[in-house]
Amino acid sequence: MTTPTGDQALIKRINTAIVLECILRGAPLSRAQISEQSGLNKATVSSLVQDLIDGSLVREIGTGQSSGGRKPVMLEFVATSGYAIGIDLGVNYIRGALVDMRGEIVAERTSSLRDSEPGAAFEQLCGCIEALIAEAPASPYGIVGIGVGVPGIVDENGTILFAPNLQWRDVPLQRMLSERFGLHVTIDNEANAGALGEQKYGAGRSIANLVYVSVGIGIGTGLILHKSLYKGSAGYSGEMGHLSIEAHGLSCTCGNRGCWELYASEQALLKQASSLGFGDLEELLSAADSGRQDVLELFAGIGEYLGIGIANIVNVFNPDAVIIGNRMSQARPWLENSLRQTVVQRALGFHLRKVQLLFAELGERSAMMGAAEMAISGFFSRIKSA
Amino acid sequence: MTTPTGDQALIKRINTAIVLECILRGAPLSRAQISEQSGLNKATVSSLVQDLIDGSLVREIGTGQSSGGRKPVMLEFVATSGYAIGIDLGVNYIRGALVDMRGEIVAERTSSLRDSEPGAAFEQLCGCIEALIAEAPASPYGIVGIGVGVPGIVDENGTILFAPNLQWRDVPLQRMLSERFGLHVTIDNEANAGALGEQKYGAGRSIANLVYVSVGIGIGTGLILHKSLYKGSAGYSGEMGHLSIEAHGLSCTCGNRGCWELYASEQALLKQASSLGFGDLEELLSAADSGRQDVLELFAGIGEYLGIGIANIVNVFNPDAVIIGNRMSQARPWLENSLRQTVVQRALGFHLRKVQLLFAELGERSAMMGAAEMAISGFFSRIKSA
DNA sequence: GAAACTTAGTTTATTGAATAGACAAACTAA
DNA sequence: TTAGTTTGTCTATTCAATAAACTAAGTTTC
């Protein structure tokens, strides 16, 4: 009633998960190797592997190299046992992908958001999802779920409480999508999705504690602590864009003053750049690329402010890595120096021994891949508890 | 080898823990009630309870009220099955307690630290521990462990890497104490210990996500996320005293600028108060108590700066509660208004719906009780895995 | 006050998961 | 060929949880 009680089914779930994990990590490997790596008895492994084969999640792919005895039968995860949809719903675009169970992209669609009003945007979103579903090959489990990253605060029921740049309030996107498609739907904010994406498929692969800093129009952060997303008490932690770094600085629409994102986001950059005659990030990037001094100084300034906030993050979380993602990560060449210098100057020495400063490997796909990962891991946790 | 594999012993450990948890929570209750609350079968509960009785951790205390059938045999946890030592090693004091397994204080000793040089302090600490051990009644498990909270950064091996106000560096306190006493020793920093103490025995009882802000000479924080201490990658997270709240503010010894503790700690208060002719916190408290206007304004100012940092904490962690502890919590009557006002003004509205702002209930005993709790929970996790 | 119900806790037989160890299958090396 | 090795399965055993029957000890009802 209260706590999940322990019985034999629990053991089996645990051990099945261990076996599956071994296969996912170790690519082609034999039952004997799984037994050795996991510490499980050979007989146990055989039995669990058989169940996984019966469940179409694993298959035999012929014999491997002998090392002086009987040849091993190699196993691999069946990446095509099902497919997941990952969506990055941006302020002015929709980016979606159909991925297999290993996160390989099978189909991808990007379109600009024609009308950000909730009703119209929802229809466009559904269109994108339908098109992706139509491209899915036949598979044992079909579409295992839909994950969506959104630029706003999401509660534990998948309702978008507030998306400032879309001007949305209280949009129950999870319910809407699951009613429409009859599939499992997970909604989370763009930064959490990005964090998951980088942790699973990108720069932070298998790092236990990392902070993903999504620097776009605003700044969002996704926290992965002890290998899992930390969401706070009501599901909306990580609003670090509104960390105050100047107690008596600029007033922010959030009610606070001196919020980080007023100094270090794309918006902050563009505001300063407007007096130089630049209108968007792309123009600034190419100007920097061609070496314009004033633009380089602009980027260095943003880098410094990013560093101030990141030093705070490092001091608070002592993470293994901080990953800078979203649009601003494209400016890496012109940010990195001043950013690193500031962090080294400002973070406590003990932390610096270990923390890595990384840039997103998936580029603009971090959030989309993370959204897909939410769907995939949702599927795995369902089959584990069934 | 890698992952802990699941077997029947694991089930038994899990279920024993569930049963014990029920008994710890539900005070006197019967086997039948445990079965109902936990969902475990009556027979299973009977068997596990018998093991716990054999292990002296639980005892029968006679029959209870019948509700229309056979009278139940009531069970309770044997709080005196063992004792733990909890120590708060301060900058200028040593506070220690002998507590039973339920955290009731059996004996307590406080002394001022005569000489903060590591060798001398260690001897005084050992003296305190010896005296407390001598007061322990005979019990099945004896002294189950020693927990120590220290004002500094501690690594995963219980070595004090750096304690600025004690001027200690690289003191392997855990090894020193466990060699001396032959007991299990846990060391953690004072803020982590305080967080644990308040979460287990104080204002934050059974709250899942809380941030304990220890406002003393400096500011430290202890993070309890998902009901367990979050320690970061190397064991020293939570250095929020060095969160920069004024990007271009005062220079701090840590290398950063505008650190929170330069504006909101006891040290900050005393610095401002010196021009008014006050030398320590106690004088200021009594002046405030007698209504001196300038002193009240001083406290209000500190309250505001505390609020600025706490608003940041709330935005970052979305905790269920923030608990203000250590010496400055005594100033609650004169801080609370300006503090609450600032937090309400600066934290994002969504968070405020849920977050509670609390003051430490254990007062100066938070860290000591948390240290004892570290020893007790260490004991429980040992008997679970044995 | 006896019969009928209720509740507490134990006993018994069963289920199912993991395991050790025996074993068969399939290979290498000499 | 023969000896040794490695892989994977089979068999008997152990152990924890469980359902169901059962004993024990009450209360309620008429």
Descriptive notes:
The structure is a homodimer of 386-residue chains. Helix content of chain A is 42%, strand content 22%. Chain A has helices at residues 8-26, 31-38, 42-54, 118-134, 173-181, 190-201, 261-264, 266-274, 281-289, 293-317, 332-346, 349-352, 366-385, and strands spanning 29-30, 58-63, 73-77, 83-89, 93-100, 105-112, 143-150, 153-154, 160-163, 168-171, 185-189, 210-215, 219-225, 228-229, 321-325, 356-359. In chain A, a hairpin with a 4-residue loop joins strand 5 (93-100) and strand 6. In chain A, the strands form four sheets. In chain A, strands 6-5-4-7-11 form a five-stranded mixed sheet. The radius of gyration of chain A is 23 Å and the shape is globular. The two termini of chain A are 17 Å apart. In chain A, helix 1 (8-26) crosses helix 2 (31-38) and helix 6 packs across helix 13. Chain A is of the alpha/beta class and 386 residues long. Chain A has 13 helices and 16 strands. Chain A folds into three domains: 8-77, Orthogonal Bundle (Arc Repressor Mutant, subunit A), CATH 1.10.10.10; 81-195 and 366-385, Nucleotidyltransferase, domain 5 (2-Layer Sandwich), CATH 3.30.420; 205-360, ATPase, nucleotide binding domain (Nucleotidyltransferase, domain 5), CATH 3.30.420.40. At the A-B interface, helix 1, helix 2, helix 10 and helix 12 of A face helix 1, helix 2, helix 10 and helix 12 of B. Chain A binds a DNA duplex (30 and 30 nucleotides) through residues 5-9, 11-12, 15, 30-32, 35, 40-47, 63, 66-73.
